[in-house]
Amino acid sequence: MRAPDAILPLRAEGLGFRAGGVAVLQDVSFTLAAGPPTLILGPNGAGKSVLLRLLHGLLAPSAGRVAWDGPAPDPRRHQAMVFQRPVLLRRSVLANLRYPLFLAGLDRAEQDARAAEALALVGLEALADRPARRLSGGEQQRLALARAAALRPEVLFLDEPCASLDPAATGAVEQIIQALAARGTKLVMTTHDLAQARRLAGEIAFLHRGRLLEHGPAARFFASPETGEAAAFLRGELIW
Amino acid sequence: MYDLQAAVTQAIGLVAAGDPTLAQIVLLSLRVSLTAVLLAALVGLPLGALLAVARFPGRGAVVAFLNALMGLPPVVAGLLIYLLLSRAGPLGSLGLLFTPTAMVIAQAVLVAPILAALTRQVLEGMWEEYAEQLRSFGAGPARAVPTLLWDGRFALLTVLLAGFGRASAEVGAVMIVGGNIEGFTRVMTTAIALETSKGDLPLALALGLVLMAIVLAVNALAQGLRERGLRLA
């Protein structure tokens, strides 16, 4: 059964990206279907963030293409992204939540309903009228998540959302991420944090030096990695 | 020879008594400069915001040209508007030369590049920060313009005040296109220049005091808004 507004599966075909003559990504192909979270794992500089931006359409590939194979006519409307450092508008928390909903063409009542729901999801109800940029780092990232969630995307891209947060804030963010996964949002998230990948992943895509070395169920990846690089990464060796 | 102390005392007396000649000159100055800044803002702010988000060949040259225009000498701006509005000029038939309207136009021409250049500076950094997130929301550069103007509102108020400071303090442009006609186009700066050369120091000093007070008030306001803005956004 496929909903008429579904955009998945997502197909990457021979994706490559070059910046300043350097190949950041080479020949990356895979298919992502609805289901548990996909974690894109790899050391810093492996090309994880670039891959996420290519999939979300923020960057144009130098080679290959990204295809959304679902029946929905406008895939852009059904995805959202949360960045490593949250980009919050210089407005109140509530106004930040309303902004993308307004751009999406929702009326004021629907904007308010979704904003209230998203605030409850991330536990920021009490801060609705605060200037967003006065919030703590963890609260800012929760607001960024709420703002993305309020769009009710089918696919949510998360680029190292906990990289600059302390353990308590990371825990809060992971809880929200799991709640979103539980309600059926397909999460595609980058991380270089093995422990976080073990906690969240349904499947793993392992990137190394711009190439996709492994892609499969998380349990299998962690139990018996197929490549030497992945095995070394799992042992905690410093690979790059 | 004149007695400086007596001149200062008389000047304070004129301000305190609300001398009608003085009041008329001050009010015309405010009307001309405020209208000019408003008109310049309608063009300069969107233009600056557009330049902050747009990427096109030759953009660097446009930015450099705009920055250079910030230093446009008021007398040159006045001369250009004079040539346009004079009897033989392309807009001569409008009969605007030596009217307050001509003064508004000249000051607006002087201030618009300042507002546009400062707006671009203020909003460009913000755009670098916002661009990816806004594109993720489906908003391109054109949609970003009103967003940036709103999010930069506190910084842009200080930009507007800088423009007002420039307009209210210049003498060259309004002198050339206004003609400093008593009771009609005489403003604070042109009156100060005239009264000083005539030797009527009390009136010149009184006007100078008012002008100083306005400039100080504007700067205090700018400072206050900046601090308030930092707290709020």
Automatic annotation (TrEMBL), chain A:
GO terms for molecular function: ATP binding. Pfam families: ABC_tran. SUPFAM superfamilies: P-loop containing nucleoside triphosphate hydrolases (SSF52540). The keyword Membrane applies. It is found in: Cell membrane. InterPro entries: AAA+_ATPase (IPR003593), ABC_transporter-like_ATP-bd (IPR003439), ABC_transporter-like_CS (IPR017871), MetN_ABC_transporter-like (IPR050086), P-loop_NTPase (IPR027417). Keywords: ATP-binding, Cell membrane, Membrane, Nucleotide-binding, Transport. Residues 10-234 form the ABC transporter domain. It is a peripheral membrane protein. The keyword Cell membrane applies. Belongs to the ABC transporter superfamily. PANTHER family: AMINO ACID IMPORT ATP-BINDING PROTEIN, GLUTAMATE_ASPARTATE IMPORT ATP-BINDING PROTEIN GLTL. This is ATP-binding cassette domain-containing protein. It comes from Falsiroseomonas frigidaquae.
TrEMBL record, chain B:
Residues 26-222 form the ABC transmembrane type-1 domain. It is found in: Cell membrane. The chain crosses the membrane at residues 33-54, 61-85, 97-118, 154-181, 201-222. Keywords: Membrane, Transmembrane, Transmembrane helix. CDD domains: TM_PBP2. Its main location: membrane. The keyword Cell membrane does not apply. This is ABC transporter permease. It comes from Falsiroseomonas frigidaquae.
